[in-house]
Design brief:
InterPro entries: Cupredoxin, Phytocyanin-like, Phytocyanin_dom. By secondary structure, the chain is an alpha/beta fold. Helices cover 33% and strands 19% of the residues. The longest helix is centred in the C-terminal third of the chain and has 24 residues.
């Protein structure tokens, strides 16, 4: 009997540990990254962003940057007075509040040339299981696969205990 209680505790701990994995890392621009010549509106169009998801901006350090701005600054491509630039070349932003979020590159005329991103973060919780993978959604597919494995292990443990 003590072994069954121990196994149930392990299953619960495994499932609880899997919950943070529900957040998705989105590499902005997918393989192209954060650079000129990418249509970021099209990139974001088929994605649903949830609280806890992360945006990863990959670019050559020194060639670009990332500013978090408001809607007005986004429309005007104004960056310098609103926030501090992220400049590491591998900037990660955790989506912590729901609503519209605006990002742009403040280098030269990059923003005016289309190097800007607007997304909407849902106030709903992320789904327990991700949908089937589509083009450019390897993070979603990996998340779904991981959660499926956790549930299969839990089911096997329950069957073993019977």
């Amino acid at each position: 009997m003590a072994i069954k209680v121990y196994l149930i505790a392990i299953i619960v701990a495994t499932i609880a540990a899997a919950l943070p994995a529900l957040a998705t890392d989105y590499v902005v621009g997918d393989n192209a990254g954060w650079r000129l010549g990418v249509n970021y509106s099209a990139w974001a169009q088929d994605k649903t962003f949830f609280l806890g998801d992360r945006l990863v901006f990959n670019y050559s350090q020194g060639l670009h940057n990332v500013y978090r701005v408001n809607g007005t600054a986004f429309q005007q491509c104004a960056s310098s007075s609103l926030s501090e630039a992220l400049t590491t070349g591998n900037d990660i932003i955790t989506l912590a509040t729901p609503g519209r979020k605006w990002y742009l590159c403040g280098v030269g005329n990059h923003c005016a040339s289309g190097m800007k991103l607007v997304i909407t973060v849902s106030s709903a919780e992320a789904p327990a299981l991700a949908p089937a993978p589509t083009s450019g959604s390897s993070a979603t597919y990996q998340k779904s696969l991981f959660i499926s494995c956790v549930w299969m292990l839990a089911a096997l443990a329950v069957i073993y205990m019977m």
